[in-house]
Amino acid sequence: MTENEIGKIVVDACYHIHRELGPGLLEKVYEIILADRLRSKRLSVQRQVVVPIVFDGKQFEEGFAADIIVENKVILELKSIETVHPVHKKQLLTYLRLTGMKLGYLLNFGEELMKTGVSRIINGNLE
C-alpha cells in the first residue's frame, strides 16, 4: 500500500470521527479512536512511538514520540487546538526527516470543520 493510499484512508477516518464526535475533546481521545478505526481497516498502527535522535554520532533514545505511525510509512501528528501555527507543520516535517518517512498529516480535531484541520506534509519526493 502506498503512502497516498494510506493517506486517503486516514483522512476519511478523520472526517468520520470528527463528524460523529465534533471538535473540542482531548487529543488523546481522538488518537485512541483514530488508531482503532485504522486498525479496523487492517492497517498496522503504532501509537506514541519513541523515535531516537542521532546527533554528533550519538543516539539519544529520548528523541520524540510520534502520535501515530501507520504501516511504518505515514506519521500522524494530532492536535485538538483552536489554531494550528506554522511551528506545528515544521515539527512534523522534522519528524519526517528524522525518520526518513515521506508523508505525514497534521490533524487538528479542534477545527470547526475537519477539512480545515487537515495538513498534508511531504518530505522530499512522493511517488
Outline of the structure:
The protein has 127 residues and is an alpha+beta fold. The chain is built from three helices and five strands.
Strand and helix map with partners:
Layout: H1 3-21, H2 27-40, E1 45-55, E2 58-70, E3 74-79, H3 86-99, E4 103-108, E5 118-122
Helix pairs in contact: 1-2
Largest sheet: 5 strands, mixed
Major sheet: arrangement of strands = 1-2-3-4-5
Global mean pLDDT: 94
- What coarse outline follows from CA principal-axis ratios? globular
- In total, the number of strands is 5
Cα-to-Cα separation, first versus last residue: 12 Å
* Share in helix: 25-40%
Radius of gyration of CA atoms, rounded to a whole number = 14 Å
Structurally, the number of domains stands at 1
Low-pLDDT stretches are: none
Strand content: 25-35%
Treating each run of at least 4 consecutive H or I residues as one helix, how many helices?
3
Task: Note down, in words, how this protein is organized.
By secondary structure, the protein is of the alpha+beta class. The protein contains three helices and five strands, in the order H-H-E-E-E-H-E-E. It has helices at 3-21, 27-40, 86-99; strands at 45-55, 58-70, 74-79, 103-108, 118-122. The protein has a five-stranded mixed beta sheet with strand order 1-2-3-4-5. Helix 1 (3-21) crosses helix 2.
